[in-house]
Design brief:
With about 120 residues, the protein is mostly helical. It has helices spanning about 5-15, 25-45, 50-75, 85-105.
Length: about 120
Amino acid sequence: MLTSEQRKRAYAFLSAMDIMPTEEALEHLEVLMEVMALYESRTEAYGQIWKQYGALSNLLSAARKTDRTMETWWHDPGDVPLMHKDALDDALDSINYFVFFIRNVRAMNITGTVPKRPKAPF
């Protein structure tokens, strides 16, 4: 939930970006701010490792997170603790992985920079 000061800044940001600062837009931005906060905390912990594996790896990670979200919400929504952080964590992660995918595609980093593992000697 945005504080009143954050709402004012979000309203100003949307206006400055020529986006109509409606209640719907503010709620949308609030979710994206959660995604950014998650990105920031994970970047502190892991750095920019997502760049090393490229767009295709990011797409697979987004699919995995989406599958987990589907499993949690679609197949058994009655058992999901709605107020528990982890109930939405995979959905927020999937948004970040899709952003990583898009950023890597735009940078033409499709397969990443990590060299392929050598074949096992046996």
